[in-house]
From TrEMBL:
InterPro entries in UniProt: AhpD-like, AhpD_core, CMD-like
Residues annotated as domain Carboxymuconolactone decarboxylase-like: 18-97
Gene Ontology molecular function: peroxiredoxin activity
Organism: Kribbella pratensis
Pfam families: CMD (PF02627)
Entry protein name: AhpD family alkylhydroperoxidase
PANTHER family in alphabetical order: 4-CARBOXYMUCONOLACTONE DECARBOXYLASE FAMILY PROTEIN (AFU_ORTHOLOGUE AFUA_6G11590) (PTHR34846), BLL7811 PROTEIN (PTHR34846:SF7)
Length: 163
């Protein structure tokens, strides 16, 4: 299938739900969790979930906010690169384990949690866990509805949802 199954923003309920999801995103932007980290987390979860729509959005939004091409290109291989801080690596590790819950018998390991807790306070950890949960939900919606990547322009999501 090469067409979206439903245009979420043209569906009354879909538009309402999208606006509520975006409101959570806006609230997360106001937390102490660095925006750079948030962008990396959303991109990595979207890569794991194979969501072209969300990869397109989050890579372009991150670039528009000043993220480098090198770092964006290396997100999928963050363990084997030198361009991410220890804090970002901790967030990416947590993202991967929380996104791949079905693949790991223990879910998020105590080691990964302790690593994240070393760099992020309790409020930031709540924001990080919520961000991971929200992007995973969004990925699953977009993949199920066959939302396609490739044509996104930075700022479009904010403009569409806030209209």
């Amino acid at each position: 299938m090469t067409e979206p199954r439903i245009d979420v923003m043209q569906n009354e309920l879909g538009a309402k739900l999208a606006k509520r999801l975006f409101a959570v995103h806006n609230l997360l932007q106001q937390t102490g969790l660095p925006h750079v980290t948030q962008n990396l987390v959303m991109l990595r979860a979207s890569q794991i979930n194979g969501c072209g729509h969300c990869i397109d959005i989050h890579s372009k939004e991150a670039a528009a906010e000043g993220e480098t091409t090198t770092r964006l290109n290396l997100v999928a291989g963050w363990r084997h690169s030198t361009v991410f801080t220890e804090e970002e690596q901790a967030a990416l590790a947590l993202t991967e384990e929380a996104t791949r819950l079905a693949d790991a018998s223990e879910g998020v390991s105590d080691e990964t949690w302790a690593r994240a807790a070393k760099y992020y306070d309790e409020d930031q950890l709540i924001a990080l866990v919520t961000l991971i949960a929200m992007i995973n939900a969004t990925n699953r919606m977009a993949v199920t509805l066959n939302q396609l990547g490739g044509s996104y322009e930075p700022g479009l999501m904010s403009a569409t949802v806030n209209s």
